[in-house]
């Protein structure tokens, strides 16, 4: 079973990479795709080497939990155990940890390919390297590919978020598969699911093309979802009662955990602004304590310069900005997820890993806003449908 599954994965990787390569006519974009492939699967390889057989790592724990579980449904729960529930059939069928790591690394690779296809269509209106927008080059940040290469929730959540973004670009309402992905997201990361529900509700309620009766139904549906997700969130963060004292105790426990970690911060002494800085740009050169943190500092310095440049561009060219529903979805979802994570982030390593949840959304939204011309925006959907027909 493992050999067949591994062979199928390798065939798929070769096929999808070849398809995207042949679709691109510009040599520069083909070079970008080659670099994307190399950097991503190098990240997958490193992720596997850092977790295979390493007790205490999330990836190996997921695998062991599935391997030694008494039954499939004994794993059905919220968060990490649900991930073990998802991989249980494959593990019991003899699929190895290497093949599973390659599977989830390939899911995230597909997500990056979707971003690549959309961003490669835009014109270059501002900064470019080899005729490719700097906003697209940012997708090659090594940490994004490293953290998305693990056997774990991050790769799957990234894939689901990217799928939902580009489905939303094409259609108004989600189908059964999309709803199923949303349910999986709710069980893996309830807080991120909550952000998406709020963003989608806001879009539907402010859309003038949707009838009033439909909006009323959506309001009741949203309230029902919120009513269900609150106890799910409480279970996810292990709060038994929804009281102020219970919340303070949870914050105290989280603060104790944060201080005990090597790169943690004191939540009670840090402001929300400080945690925003931590999530976006730390470690930076002034607080790097190891070779790894110095390497990450270079990447974070690039991201800092990128955001400063983008703020200047957006302010000076605000009347030329193009915005479409997918751009709004990516922008509001990215900001919402970012603020949600910033409310509890307590560790430099966790901050680096959690950027995968929102940075690609923000990179995509910024790229489309400053590089996509109005005519291109109007014809974008037509080109996508034409491309799908060709395929």
Q: How would you characterize this protein structure?
A:
Mean pLDDT is 84; it is low at 374-379 and 385-391. The chain contains 18 helices and two strands. With 391 residues, the chain is mostly helical. A two-stranded antiparallel ribbon has the order 1-2. It is globular, with a radius of gyration of 21 Å.
Task: Summarize, please.
The protein is mainly alpha-helical. The chain is 72% helix and 1% strand.
Which of globular, elongated, flat, extended, rod-shaped describes the shape? globular
Q: What structural class should be given to the helix and strand makeup?
A: mainly alpha
Low-confidence stretches: 374-379, 385-391
Which sequence of SSEs, written as H and E, runs from N to C? HHHHHEEHHHHHHHHHHHHH
Rounded to the nearest angstrom, the radius of gyration is 21 Å
The main sheet comes to: 2 strands, antiparallel
Helix content: over 70%
The average pLDDT is: 84
Number of distinct beta strands: 2
How would you write the strand order of the largest sheet? 1-2
- Gap between N and C termini, in Å? 30 Å
Strand proportion: under 5%
Continuous helix count: 18
Task: Kindly list the characteristics that best describe this protein.
single chain; two-stranded antiparallel ribbon; 18 helices; 72% helix; disordered C terminus
What is the topological layout?
Layout: H1 2-23, H2 27-49, H3 58-67, H4 80-92, H5 97-119, E1 128-129, E2 132-133, H6 134-137, H7 142-147, H8 153-170, H9 176-188, H10 190-206, H11 212-236, H12 244-260, H13 272-281, H14 291-316, H15 325-342, H16 348-354, H17 359-371, H18 374-390
Antiparallel strand pairs: 1-2
Helix pairs in contact: 1-2, 1-5, 2-5, 3-4, 5-8, 8-9, 8-15, 9-10, 10-11, 10-15, 13-15, 15-17
């Amino acid at each position: 079973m493992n050999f067949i599954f591994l062979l199928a994965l390798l065939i798929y990787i070769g096929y999808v990479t070849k398809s995207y390569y042949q679709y691109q006519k510009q040599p520069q974009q083909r070079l970008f795709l080659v670099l994307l492939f190399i950097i991503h699967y190098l990240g997958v390889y490193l992720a596997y080497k850092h977790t295979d057989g390493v007790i205490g790592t999330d990836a190996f724990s997921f695998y062991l939990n599935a391997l030694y579980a008494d039954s499939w449904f004994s794993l059905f729960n919220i968060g990490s155990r649900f991930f073990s529930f998802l991989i249980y059939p494959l593990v019991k069928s003899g699929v190895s940890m290497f093949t599973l790591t390659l599977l989830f690394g390939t899911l995230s690779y597909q997500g990056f390919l979707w971003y690549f296809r959309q961003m490669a269509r835009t014109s270059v209106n501002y900064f470019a390297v080899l005729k490719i927008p700097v906003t697209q080059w940012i997708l090659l940040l090594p940490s994004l590919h490293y953290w998305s290469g693990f056997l774990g929730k991050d790769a799957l959540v990234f894939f689901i978020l990217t799928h939902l973004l580009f489905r939303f670009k094409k259609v108004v309402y989600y189908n059964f598969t999309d709803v199923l992905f949303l349910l999986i997201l709710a069980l893996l990361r309830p807080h991120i699911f909550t952000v998406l529900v709020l963003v989608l509700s806001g879009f539907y309620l402010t859309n003038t093309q949707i009838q009033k009766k439909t909006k009323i139904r959506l309001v009741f549906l949203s309230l029902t979802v919120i009513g269900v997700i609150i106890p799910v969130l409480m279970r996810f963060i292990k709060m038994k009662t929804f009281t102020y004292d219970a919340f303070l105790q949870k914050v105290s426990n989280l603060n104790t955990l944060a201080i005990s970690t090597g790169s943690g911060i004191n939540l009670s002494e840090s402001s929300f602004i400080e945690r925003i800085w931590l999530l976006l740009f730390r470690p930076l050169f002034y607080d790097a304590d190891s070779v790894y943190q110095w390497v990450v500092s270079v990447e974070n310095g690039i991201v800092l310069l990128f955001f400063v440049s983008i703020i200047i561009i957006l302010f000076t060219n605000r009347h030329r900005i193009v915005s479409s529903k997918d751009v709004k979805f990516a922008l509001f979802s990215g900001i919402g997820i970012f603020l949600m994570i910033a409310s509890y982030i307590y560790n430099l390593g966790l901050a680096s890993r959690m950027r995968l949840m929102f940075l690609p959304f923000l990179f995509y939204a910024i790229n489309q806003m400053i590089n996509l011309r109005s005519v291109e925006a109007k014809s974008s959907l037509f080109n996508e449908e034409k491309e799908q027909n060709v395929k």
